[in-house]
Write a structure and sequence with these properties.
10 helices, 12 strands, binds iron/sulfur cluster
Length: 335
């Protein structure tokens, strides 16, 4: 069977921030694919390179200091890296849309929410003002807000409602790719669950390819099909949701799960990962995780791990799974 062209494909992406004093290695050879209708969770601590990856896909990184050093970013098989700002402007909102972290600052306080949605529609589609306004009301209904509220201003909405409006704006032109960067972090837990379930419904309805950026594995379990675990600008483990949740292999992924409270084992203490993410302008030699890894050997400081495939869809970057490195996980396996 012919391999279907993914809606989004990122290949060997390298992004740096170059300043007078240092070169910050933010994204270090990242590759992944997101097929139509599928959601990939991009997970890792702050500073892992998740948002830089997302902004590269949108081509919204400030250049300088940011520099897309190498790699491809393909929308339905077409590399957009060489695209001009004008070409990208036509794609943003219509082909690819992004929901940013903070709903409070993403809306214009002096425009009604209906006008803000209609503005995006009018920018990308040849429709009359009236048609755009009618569509804006439909979008509000889609995200669970009455269309009658289209004439209200952002301050008249709660945090959760504002985030729904932002999602309505992002989806107004039916984009093929949606990138949601910590879309529920600023919301309280019950509202989080409502917004996530709404996003899941919309994704199914429109068959949107989605990247969900989060540090919260609970959110990933709820909505994602695949998971990419990112550390120091690299994807160090990738797999289908069940492969990562039931059979994770990387010591860092183990650490992420160890930092989660377990309701079944309430008496057990959390085991947070010791140490901090390395300074991206001064990355360690060998495996970037070795200064924090409880299984590290001298070899880990010398060699950078390659991808080892454990199935067609699950890979890990750790020397313990590579032949002939001599690095072993104590007990033979991570679990
Ligand atoms: Fe740990 Fe070594 Fe594997 Fe890196 S390569 S994750 S340091 S065991």
């Amino acid at each position: 069977m012919a391999h279907e062209i993914p809606e989004l494909k990122v290949e060997n992406l390298v992004v740096e921030y170059v300043t007078e004093d240092a070169v910050v290695h933010a994204v270090n050879d990242v590759s992944f694919e997101v097929p139509k209708g599928s959601t990939m969770g991009l997970v890792g601590e702050t500073g892992a390179g998740k948002t830089t990856t997302a902004l590269s896909i949108m081509k919204l990184l400030p250049d300088p200091p940011a520099k897309l050093v190498s790699g491809k970013i393909e929308f339905a098989g077409e590399d957009i890296v060489p695209y001009s700002e004008k070409q990208m402007d036509a794609l943003r909102g219509s082909t690819v849309s992004m929901v940013f972290q903070d709903p409070m600052t993403s809306l214009n306080p002096v425009l009604t929410v209906g006008d803000q949605i209609a503005e995006v529609i009018r920018r990308h589609q040849r429709v009359s003002k009236l048609e755009a306004r009618t569509k804006a009301k439909e979008m509000l209904e889609l995200v669970g807000i009455s269309g009658d509220r289209a004439g209200e201003y952002p301050h008249q909405f709660s945090g959760g409602m504002k985030q729904r409006v932002i999602i309505a704006i992002a989806l107004a032109c039916n984009p093929k790719i949606l990138i949601a960067d910590e879309p529920t972090t600023a919301l309280d837990v019950t509202i989080q669950a409502q917004v996530l379930s709404m996003m899941r419904d919309i994704k199914q309805k429109f068959d949107t390819a989605m990247i969900l950026i989060t540090h919260d594995l609970g959110v990933v379990a709820d909505i994602c099909d695949t998971v990419a675990i990112m550390y120091a600008g690299r994807i160090i483990e990738y797999g289908k949701i069940e492969e990562i949740f039931d059979d994770f292999k990387h010591p860092y992924t183990e650490g992420l799960f160890g930092s989660l409270p377990n309701l079944q084992k309430r008496h057990e203490k959390l085991k947070p990962i010791k140490g901090l993410m390395p300074d991206p302008s001064d990355l360690p030699t060998g495996c970037y995780f070795h200064p924090r890894c409880k299984y590290a050997t001298a070899e880990c400081a010398k060699r950078q791990p390659k991808k080892t495939y454990l199935s067609d869809t699950h890979y890990v970057e750790c020397l313990a799974y590579e032949e002939g490195t001599g690095v072993k996980i104590e007990g033979g396996d991570i679990k």
